[in-house]
Amino acid sequence: MTAYQRSLAGTTGGGLAGVTDLAPAEDTEQPICEFFFNLTSPEEVEYFTYSQGDVLYLTVFLPIILVVGVLDNAAFMYVVLRLPRMRTVTNCYLVGLSVADIIFLVFAIGSKLLCYVKSPISGDDNPLGLAGCQLNQFMVNTSYFASLCFITLVSWERFNGVCRPHRRRDTKVRVAANVAASTVLSGIVSASLLFSFDSVTIECIDWPSSPLYARWPDERLLCISANDWADKYSFAAQTAPFFISLVANTLLYFKIIQGLDQSLRRTQQSNHRKSRDASTRNQVARMLVINGVALFALLAPFEIMSLFRLIAMFRDDQFILPYDVRQSLTYVARVASYFNSIVNPVIYTVLSSRYREAFQIAFLPARCRPRHKASDNSHPGSTGRSGTMTTKAESRM
User: Fold this and answer.
1) 3-state SS, residue 124
2) Residue 389: in which H helix or E strand, if any?
3) Is the pLDDT of residue 338 over 90?
4) Where are the bilayer-spanning segments (predicted)?
5) Of residues 23 and 275, which shows the higher confidence score?
């Protein structure tokens, strides 16, 4: 076991009083009771149970994040499917991003809630089992890598729309191929990370003699990696795509902002109608840039923590920060990654009148919908039509 795995088992930093390490059982397929914990005091029990902060986090905060994230991403997908003018190249990629965010939230948060409901022991993977751990990690990592791909495709599409407006637009076949390729590539990279969840450690626990613990399970299961190299590869393969996509998107954002400045100078000399159309295109482009910046900013804390952990692995598990500080920072990083999966539709509606209008048309009664503005017609570019729905189109909804 690595030092990190031993720290999970409570065998570093002095360990727990009354703990005896047992050698793995011989001639068995799976080792039983690799560690044995004889708990005699409340302090030792607290090490294996959820704190009040954990309970609040798992019973209030995470369910709210899960519900809000699934609903607002599903609402955006509904808007795109319902309104024909919203079915653009950009929105196809954003729908893919919403699907990835929903999958991420369902598996990342759902697995934690399942373990909390099924077992009173903190960090117990028994409700999942090894197969469940692998499935959960595969889905979480696939959705994570896919979100990086989709946000990069959005940036590339906006770069072409702003800086190369005369370039031939992507066809439906090409868009579908890009979505499929991103999903398959994400799945392949995610599958390669399963080496870091190819084994389990079973800890046997002897609880204090109290009726409170009479029905508590006497085993805790931890999904781990059997090889140090697999852990190192896992953290490297997780962080590398993030920083690669961060650099690529930063360059694209720089070019997009340059293109927007040039477009603004040109529209100041054009007629009113062209100026309105260009203003709408630029508003959408700025919204997408801010959306991408928010995504990378919210994912950065977790990836930086993963990078530091990778560096520590090459330094014989010597960490700069103490364990308690790292745990607190990991909580903050996880919360930021969860928020990343719910803020995208919020950014769309707050920063773009076009998206706000689409949400109003999709969800409000006909009498409450915004009126059609004759001056807001279609504009060139891959984002499709920028104006409101026509009266005829509204009457069919």
Assistant:
1) coil
2) none
3) yes
4) 55-81, 93-114, 134-154, 175-197, 235-256, 288-311, 331-351
5) 275
Q: Is the pLDDT of residue 7 over 50?
A: no
Please state, in angstroms and rounded to a whole number, the distance separating the CA atoms of residues 90 and 156: 10
Mean pLDDT of 19-35: 52
Q: What is the 3-state secondary structure (H, E, C) of 75-125?
A: HHHHHHHHCHHHCCHHHHHHHHHHHHHHHHHHHHHHHHHHHHHHCCECCCC
Strand order in the sheet with 199-206: 19-21, 35-38, 199-206, 219-224
H-state helical runs in 193-227: none
What count of other Cβ atoms lies within 10 Å of the Cβ of residue 122? 16
- What's the rounded Cα separation, in Å, for the pair 88 and 383? 5
296-337 residue pLDDT tens: 999 988 888 888 888 887 877 777 777 778 888 888 889 999
Residue 93 makes CB contacts below 8 A (sequence gap 6+) with: 150, 151, 153, 154, 157, 175, 178, 179
Inter-CA distances, 165 with 106, 160, 228, 280, Å: 38, 6, 50, 15
Enumerate the β-bridge partners of residue 37.
19, 205
Q: Are 251 and 318 in contact, with CB atoms under 8 Å apart?
A: no
Lowest mean pLDDT across 37-41, 103-107, 202-206, 250-254: 37-41
Which residue reads 């004759």 in tokens?
374
Which tokens belong to 34?
Answer: 């690799």
Backbone dihedral region of 15: left (phi > 0), alpha (psi from -120 to 50 degrees) or beta? left
| Cα angle 299, 304, 305; round to 5 | 105
Residue 154: is its pLDDT beyond 60? yes
Contact 7, 47 (CB under 8 A): no
Q: Which of 10-19, 65-74, 114-123, 156-165 has the lowest mean pLDDT?
A: 10-19
The answer to whether the Cα torsion of 32, 34, 40, 42 is positive or negative is negative
Long-range contacts of 4-7, Cβ-Cβ distance < 8 Å, separation of 24 or more: 4/231, 4/309, 4/313, 4/317, 5/201, 5/222, 5/224, 5/225, 7/323
Q: Look at residue 214 and tell me whether its pLDDT is greater than 90.
A: no
Residue type, 39: L
Q: Taking a C-beta distance cutoff of 8 angstroms, is the pair 5, 223 a contact? A: no
